[in-house]
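hi support,

uploading two proteins for the ticket. first:
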Amino acid sequence: MNFNSPYNPKETEGRIYKLWEKSGFFNPDNLPDKRKGKFVTPIAPPNITGELHMGHALELTMQDILVRMKRMQGFKTLWIPGIDHAGIAAQNVVEKQLAKEGTNRHKLGEKKFLERMWEWKEKYGGLILEQFKKLGLSVDWSRTRFTMDLDYQKAVKFAFDHYLKKNWIYSGERVVNWCPRCETYISDLEVNYVPEKTKLYFIKYGPFTVATVRPETKLADMALAVNPNDERYKKYIDKEIDIDSVDLDIPLKEEPQIKKYTLEVLGDEAIDPNFGTGVIKVTPAHDKTDYEIAERHNLFPIAPRVINDNPYVMNPNAGVRYMGLKVSEARKKIVEDLQKLNLIKKIEDYEHNVSRCDRCNSVIEPLLSEQWFLKMNGEKGLASLALQALKKGKIRLHPSRWRKPYEDWLKNIRDWNINRQLWWGHKIPTIKEKKLEGVLDTWFSSALWPFAVLGWPNKNSKDYKEYYPTQFITSDRSILFLWIVRMIFSGIELTDRIPFKDIYIHPTVQTKEGKRMSKSLGTGINPLGLMEKYGADALRFGLAYQRTELQDMRFYEDNLMMGKKFANKLWNTVRYVLSRVKDNWDKYSKDGTFSIKEVTGSKSFGGPLRTTAEEVTKNLEKYRFGEAAHVLYDYLWHTIADEYIEKSKIKSDEETKKNLVYYVVNTLKLLHPFMPFITEEIYQQLPINSKKKCLMVEKWPTG
């Protein structure tokens, strides 16, 4: 490349990435020189449905900065890439495709549907990994893994059998989250609570009035409940009262009639006296709080359900009057009937949090269902293992403010519902002669990622013996509990070792207005387009530069323009130094290492270089990426360009020329983790006598 021309990222980036791949240095087994230790980190495997978004760009840029620095520091560095089969997310995408074709998975049948899933994986599964190359990620592609690989399936089966032998897997009934659109149960962590306006219905229950947003579930009432300290209702506690309701045996085409029945009044501390009238109906099969109340008051084993999961309609327990109606239709009809019978006192507008599926945004239906669960609690249970690892300092959370949410979640954790009513995923085996349809929760297999990708459960695997446990993992807060915590207790239980030491929870990227980035909401920003516009280095440096310790990070495109200008400043600085030194680079280098210790002359310039190297290193080792970027920006722009280069225009002796070379080369090294393409391109153009051939494996600058 001609330094007389402006830097052109489009012409450079693809060529430089091929150079790195050809070098083999992404693979730790090929790294030059004796390595002083290891640094291993697994990628957070993206979905096979995924495409690069700003969250990926931030997370992976931060991870690559760390990996590149560790590699240059002399560590045997392994960054493991891969993709996740993504269960519900992947199945949804293919089902939408089928809908456009006028069919669905049930018409296809399970065998043909799974064939379509594998076709999708082969066609689109690796696309996001190819996009990651555009970002400059230095992962070891030879070790790419997929969570449905045959070896990985064996690891999942081994883990399942391990828990089964310990009697930690059991079947039981619990109110779980049913997504009618996805046709499966999902975890509490995959539910979004969205404020929405609805109606609050005040329904007569004998001497009481009950306020509810779910009149259709009154058909499954088992009791009424009040707070035991509520003076209005104390006299009713533990007594049965007569109730008027709709006769379910009357067909819908006929006028509604009243049918009488009785309900017991329970006293329970969970009841908020200030909500509605202070009296609630207890429907254990359709509400989690009601289920817990029923458990405390021994209302089981019978808890009638009036709503089916699949199809999502009223079931025979709703009687001939409402059976077969969609839930929304049933609500409308029941309200009309109650009004005709003069059993509704009033209807008010009401705003409350509605549970919606994180994948498809459908309203979640709480339903009592038989599921498979993995025990979490107990003296030596999985939750305890993860808690003790934090308390004993075996793992470290960065920033440290995430310690408390981590502890609180584990202290209040419930047993893990590990099955999903899907076709795509790891099949649940027959257990104790009981066969449940479906697959394991995606997060069950993802929880094995740090060790399964290295050959576990084969403990004689070369990679497992050499590279496990890993040292570092990163994610945003949305999967701290879904993934990070579960990897920790899975690793301790299944391998007897902590799977990683340091956990970095990076900020969530938002729009500059502070809104959630979402393609469907029209607030998403495509990093591929930004890289096309500014170059990958500008995107990387711009993201790092605006990274702070805040929980959320508002994205400003202005920082990418700054990154582009900064890249040009670096380019022009090197062009100037070349013009001053010309063909004498070898003269100033003994072995190509350009150690800071070799810098001579004024301490006013040798000192800032040492200080800069120390500050950048310290900040990166503490995951303060923004601070490190600011230090480098100020050093290049102000110390080198504004001060030293300006002075070198006046003084051009051999010592000055030598120091110019050393400052520039070491600045390239320090900037390389942030801006790998332009720094490598410059390095390749310099007449440096180095046997290593790539800047990415040169020695990291130290004082």
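and the second one:
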Amino acid sequence: MNDLPTGLVVTHVTAGGPADQAGMKSGDVILTVQGVAISDNFGYDAVAVHFEPRKPVVYQVKRGNQTVVLNVQPGVPLDWGLFIGGVLASLAYLALALVVAAQARQDVRTRLLFWFSAAVAMELALPSLPVIGRPAVSALADLGFYLATGVQIGLELHLVSVLPEPPEWLHRRRWIVAVYYAVGLTIGATLLLLYTCDFFGWPFVTGDTSAIRSILLLVVMPLWAMAVIGMLGWKAIHHPEPSGRHRAALVLLGNSPWAIFIIATTALDLSNRPWPTWMERIEPLILLCFPVAVFFAISRYHLFDIEFVVRRSMIYAALTGTLLLLFYIGVGAGSVLFSEFVSGGASVWIVAIATLILGLAFTPLRQALQGLIDRRFFPERHAMRQRLTGLAGELAALGKLSLMGNHLVHQLREIFGLSSATLLVADPRSGVLLTLASTRSDLGEDFGLSFLLSPDDAGVRLLKRSHRALPAHQLIERSASLAQRLHAFDVAVMVPVIRGGTVIALLLLGPKASGQRYLAEEMDLLNLLAQHVATVLENARLFASATYDSLTGLLRREAILDLLDKELHRALRYRRPLTVGMADLDHFKETNDLYGHLVGDALLNRVAQALQGGLRSTDAIGRYGGEEFLLVLPETDLAGATAVAEKMRAIVEGVSLPIRDTQTIPVTVSIGLATVGHGKDAAVLTVMSLIAEADRNLFRAKQAGRNRVEPAPGPI
């Protein structure tokens, strides 16, 4: 209705409504209601507050040149079909929200779907018709509708942007998400302000704002619908993976009826034509399409990979409902029983105490039964959770970082039935991630560059931000260098191990040997495992960093010198043979300058493994500095040491580091030896003098053409 100087003009009469049944027509001007003169909407609302259902109200209206008296009976019978449809739609969105709530909240898609479904469920639960005699209820319903509309605009635009998975461009342009919510909240706030000013008669906006609100909604709603359909349609056509196109198409299918309905009703409103009765009745069914499509996408195409959660949640819901029923039966039966045997005030206290005991027992009983359900209905998942929980304790008992790494990757391969598992550990100083352990049988072929990751790699940064396990294909899109390494080692999932906001390790997990995909429950268990082992690995890593070089895995300079000092004292005291060697990579500086430090580090890593592989169990090797390595060969004379060194030189010569598909870097090493003698000058022999002699022989090897072993002329 619109204000006129002499009354209110009726702009629309709902077919079959009380006004239509009383004979009111569009264009009538309301002069009085119950004898009270009406000049504006506020005056009408003041009279309408006193309306009572089914009690006739006398309207005096002006129709052309005539004055007509009409008896309007407020209230309409409940449309049970429309009511049930609305209830079902509200419950469907509520069920969708509850199912998603059971999923891990780290996934932005599940968070958005939860809040969007909850907002729609709340909106559908609001009364859609004015409540006679209760204008405050109707006002709150309208305010709730406007607020929910603004929130839903931002949430749904954000949601369809990250379906079927978050795109790369959205990470680079985060401001787009802020625009979604800014637009939605601005629209909602504007509608709220206009309605509030109209309802309370505030001076900020004068007159009836219903026309402004209607125009705003007529513009916003179809634009919103077309934006949602456009984004989903683009993904359903252009997504690179067939499963992604299928998932986007299903959500598009669920949203299309709503979009068509919005556009059709907007066209009717713009042409001042009333909605057909059938259109009002199918609105709840149209709203049901979205949750039905999402449930189908979950079950058929694993949209959020939560079908296991759905099954378990249904069992838990039935369990909780049964316990609640038994609880109230127990309370009721107990009250009757005590009232039979105990009278007076004592019965009240006894019933209260019994109720308290039942209440305290409810939670532990429910938890015990849920544990029983996990063991009986989901024994594989329960056993897996138990094994992973115990794995963290097993690691702590091993003590040494290398033993921990080997045990962890082998156990993960066995528990999940994986083709491979690899653990990278970060250097405490540089943060560079280096291979600690792997189950790959061809580790010697693919080791080195493939498992040497910079902490600044885009994929590593994404893992750090997400703080959860991610499929490899999401990381491949971020980093070309990481993509090459993951492809070479057939990595399916990467799990970050984070401590204090720092990535201290990465688990690289291959696909399952059975060909099955990783379930959401398994990804959650991997995240839980990463949290449990973070502290254990961090402590072991810090301890190992004081003894072992993080890049090569060999003894640090201080540790190898300390070991050499002990061996030298033993050799001199008991007059036993001892030889040391200084090994240096040939042309390492040129390689480092030409290919970069990352390739240089990989080269050092490969050579260190090769040198260590050529040692006997009694020998030791450490990184002396840069590309130099110190060999300690106890109980070995010069001839024996020369044979060991030649073996090590040959092993290194057979190493090549692949850097491109067809290009490799050749590697050679020069070694200088020095052995301990037991002559008259042996008493003054020191560690540094022994190393200096080996270093002089290393220089001779370099001068003689490199890639050779140069023994000492004789003992010193």
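thanks. also noticed: The CA atoms of residues 321 and 457 lie 50 Å apart.
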